[in-house]
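Quick question, first post here. What does this chain look like in 3D?
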Amino acid sequence: MRAQKLGIMVVLLGLGAVAVALVVRDPERRRVESAFFAYLGDLRMRRFDSASRRVFPDDLTRLKVSALEHASEYVVFRDSVMAFMGVSAPQDLAAVPRERFYEFLLDRTFAEHPEVHEVISQGSVVGTRIIHDGGNAAVDATFAVGTRQGRRQFVMHVDLVRLDDEWMVRL
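> Answer (accepted):
Ran it through. Tokens below.
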């Protein structure tokens, strides 16, 4: 019985070693992780222009269309977008590059929810889980943040897609 348990332990350790070797030797995983941490660095430093260039272009186009529709319906939103973009007429918004709309929404989100930026900028990434399959990837990053109530953990989920051999964030 003891020999059987020892055999099972050896097999499990062997499988664990194979899993570690695959993770270490998986260059695509490292590329996904690198793309995620570059995006995270942009968010931490509020480099929204750089963060927007890391987003999948088709998603930026859909975001712009949605923001323009929202601006046509809601005056307060339209005024905020126009002020951020530095345009004086609503029709001028159509000429604004799509990346600027993502920058606006990041700026607005961080202004309205400073706790989001606080977690991203002050939290320590204590773990990442990366799953990739072909041209799609998902990253779950666990942040540890010290609060008055003690240490808390938050998870940030980011989907990525490979485009022209580069990993881009999906919205």
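Helices lie at 2-25, 27-44, 48-52, 57-73, 75-85, 98-112, 114-122.
Strands lie at 124-133, 136-147, 150-163, 166-169.
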